[in-house]
Amino acid sequence: MHKRLFILFVLFALAAPTFAQKYFTRDGKVRFASKASMEKIEAVNKSATAVLDATTGKMEWKVLIKGFLFEKALMQEHFNENYLESSKYPNATFKGEITNMSEVNLSKDGTYTARVKGKLTMHGVERDVETTGTIKVAGGAITVHADFVIKCSDYNVKIEAAKVTNISNEINVSVDATLNQMK
Amino acid sequence: MKRIIYILLAIACAGSAIGYYLWNKPQKDMQAAKADMAMDAAALFNEFNTDETAANAKYLDKTVAVSGKVKEATKTEDGTVKVSLETGSEFGVFCELDPLSQHARTEFPVGETVTFKGICTGLNFDVQLTRCVEVK
């Protein structure tokens, strides 16, 4: 009797569909800052989207370049027209995954340090990037935070010699988002 | 000779003043800005989903007055207000209220027909407009 029940249980468990639980946000905040000897430049975008598969740890992020708001209008114009050419390359995307899923349990409440690796595409250039981030799982929501540095020169963004004291080649990027289950 | 020096100095001063003004030019006043075009939310969304490249060429950087029924209005922790307009599909047109403008109201009842004037930044699941102000 027990054996039959056990076999039935195993068969049922195997037959049950393993649905990938996906999480989504359209309110991701991406901030970047450039600190050069003569000037500090900051901009923020509050509408980055992200999709995260809680089972595999795979994620995709997308942010519209024209959505970055600067304090100064001229800086925003230069950023879009001269540096990132956003009419030609309107968005930046990141496609990657959490590489230490054995240490990160996205279905269990807690705070985890996640290692993320993937491809960042910006200004028409795709590059492999790697960073560490913090993931907090609480009340059915997944909150992520990551800080990393990207180099303008890695993405074909050229800073003229005359502007080197105003714009740093190394940009500090900060990402914050709270993702909720997709229905 | 002295006159030439004065003239050159005057030009240099004028040049610096213009440069200073341009560098510190503030972001444009969205309440005063004129919309480049007026669109219905569903129609705008459909254009982007049919041909994103063509829609980008037509709408990116433009001040668009978009009208539609409020699907949802959200306020994030830092006070950012976003209003999504019905498009008949899961994704829609999202208007982010301008953080640099004064707004007559920041609460929008679901189902009410509203018009927002904002800058179109493209398609990211939804059509996104930033620096929006309500148009009565």
- Which two protein chains have the largest interface (Cβ within 8 Å of the partner's Cβ), and how many residues from each? A-B, 24 and 27 residues
CATH fold-type name of chain B: OB fold (Dihydrolipoamide Acetyltransferase, E2P)
| Count of separate structural domains of chain B | 1
Number of strands of chain B: 6
**Percent strand of chain A:** over 45%
Distance between the termini of chain B: 61 Å
Overall average residue pLDDT of chain A? 91
Widest β-sheet, arrangement of strands of chain A = 1-2-3-5-6-7-8-9
Question: Under the CATH scheme, which class of chain B?
Answer: Mainly Beta
Number of strands of chain A: 9
Summarize the entry for a quick read.
The complex is a heterodimer of chains A (about 180) and B (about 140). Chain A is mostly beta strands.
Overview of the structural elements:
The complex is a heterodimer of chains A (183) and B (136). By secondary structure, chain A is mainly beta. Chain A has one domain: Lipocalin. Chain A has helices spanning 2-15, 73-83, and strands at residues 22-35, 40-53, 58-64, 69-70, 91-98, 110-122, 125-138, 141-151, 170-181. Chain A has an 8-stranded antiparallel barrel. In chain A, a hairpin with a 4-residue loop joins strand 1 and strand 2. Chain A is elongated and about 85 Å long. Chain A starts with a helix and ends with a strand. In chain B, a hairpin with a 1-residue loop joins strand 5 (113-124) and strand 6 (126-134). Chain B has 136 residues and is α/β, with parallel strands linked by helices. Chain B has a 5-stranded mixed barrel. Chain B has a single domain, classed as Nucleic acid-binding proteins (OB fold (Dihydrolipoamide Acetyltransferase, E2P), Beta Barrel), CATH 2.40.50. Chain B has helices spanning 2-23, 41-50, 52-59; strands at residues 37-40, 63-75, 81-85, 93-97, 113-124, 126-134. In chain B, helix 2 (41-50) crosses helix 3. Chain B is built from 3 helices and 6 strands, in the order αβααβββββ. The longest helix of chain B is centred in the N-terminal third of the chain and has 22 residues, at 2-23.
